[in-house]
Design goal:
With 388 residues, this protein is an alpha/beta fold. It folds into 2 domains: 187 residues, 3-Layer(aba) Sandwich (Rossmann fold); 183 residues, Rossmann fold (3-Layer(aba) Sandwich). It has a 6-stranded parallel β-sheet, sandwiched between helices. The two termini are 38 Å apart.
């Protein structure tokens, strides 16, 4: 069948790669540079499996900026555009998603709209009422940056926010394209599916915040945090995973999804959801305070990215910490090989690692690797397990 995917980020491109093995897939993006890269089978994002499939697989995949051409005769139009959290409105900015829905409605075509962009709880029902349509549902994604296609090939679960025949076909479409045996598909209404997405990501943020606060306690009291975490996680109900302390959660999803869920609780009693959001801010302030106590003249930032094997540093905790250090008149230099400029946020970007190490009094590293092993006496990190 013909399928169109709107948005060429982690979600859209991984889904387009997955489905173009057995279907005719168009991916629509506003950036001509991204469109050209996809058509030349160059991945515009860092993802090992997408890069591998682009080189090795025969994909029926075309990228275009012409949405009308892409939408025409498509059985499914899957929206994967970003929804940033608007701090002023205290809500997701869903304008890009709604703009696509409006374009589909105005074309008056026989298709089914699938929203993969993360949206507030109740968004699909609002769109149904606003545009007098029923051919739309929400299906959340659960992907890791840098491993998006892998997570589509081996999904933890498939959630489809529709009980219709079109919903069942879509669920089976994703299942058929995966390489995993016995994939669980859960069908429900879109509003419940929207809630699944926000609650799942907020739980992950909760787990990060919990182990970060445990680490803060250990650091201030000069305890062996690793021993505490190891002992706590031997309980099988807790588990030895997703427990490596960091400077705070960041990225495309967790900061905005936790804030959106908090906003959805406006008329519902809660304490925990707000605490998760506040805990992340407290953690970043604590890290900055620990650096200031060292009284450095120059602080080197070793990578802006949040995790290993990633080129994404959107909303990374380190950027918030940089701002605090700058307000305290600390000179900041940055080593970030993915940056092609010599300045970032008014800070000097250095591409000579050896010079970066020499100049820095303290090197701030959310995640460490072999590149800084020779200057560990300068490195401040909370990376205990040397993993994400």
């Amino acid at each position: 069948m013909k399928i169109t995917i709107v948005g060429c980020g982690y979600v859209g491109l991984s889904l387009a790669t997955l489905l173009s093995q057995d279907n005719e897939v168009y991916v629509v993006d506003v950036l001509t540079s991204k469109v050209n890269m996809v058509n030349n089978r160059i991945s515009p994002i860092k993802d090992e499996y997408i890069e591998k499939y682009f080189k090795e697989k025969k994909l029926n995949l075309k990228a275009t900026t012409d949405y009308q051409k892409a939408f025409k005769n498509s059985q499914y139009i899957i929206i994967c555009t970003p929804t940033n959290y608007d701090e002023n409105q205290n809500y997701f900015d869903t304008s890009n998603v709604e703009d696509t829905i409006e374009k589909v409605v105005n074309m008056n075509i026989d298709t089914t709209i699938v929203v993969k962009s993360t949206v507030p709880v109740g968004f699909v029902e609002e769109m149904k009422n606003k545009y007098s349509i029923n051919n739309i549902f929400f299906s959340p994604e659960f992907l890791r940056e840098g491993n998006a296609l892998y997570d589509n090939l081996y999904p933890s679960r498939i959630i489809v926010g529709s009980l219709s025949e079109e919903g069942k076909i879509f669920g089976e479409l994703l299942k058929k394209a995966s390489l995993k045996d016995n994939v669980t598909i859960k069908y429900m209404n879109s509003t419940e599916a929207e809630a699944v997405k926000l609650f799942a990501n907020t739980y992950l943020a909760l787990r990060i915040a919990y182990f970060n606060e445990l680490d803060t306690y250990g650091e201030i009291n000069k305890l062996n945090t690793k021993d505490i975490i190891d002992g706590v996680c031997l309980d099988l109900r807790i588990g030895d995973y997703y427990n490596n302390p960091s400077f705070g959660y960041g990225g495309y999803c967790l900061p905005k999804d936790t804030k959106q869920l908090k906003a959805n609780y406006e008329n519902v009693p809660e304490n925990l959801i707000s605490a998760i959001v506040h805990s992340n801010e407290t953690r970043k302030k604590h890290i900055a305070e620990m650096i200031l106590k060292k009284d450095p003249k120059v602080v080197g930032i070793y990578r802006l990215t949040m995790k290993k094997n990633s080129d994404n540093f959107r909303n990374s905790a380190i950027q918030y910490i940089i701002e605090i250090l700058k307000k305290n008149n600390i000179n900041i230099i940055i080593y970030e090989p993915s940056l092609k400029t010599n300045k970032f946020n008014d800070c000097i970007v250095m591409n000579q690692l050896d010079k970066f190490k020499i100049i820095s009094d303290v090197i701030l590293a959310n995640r460490i690797d072999n590149n800084v092993n020779d200057v560990l006496e300068k490195v401040y990190t909370r990376d205990i397990y040397n993993r994400d």
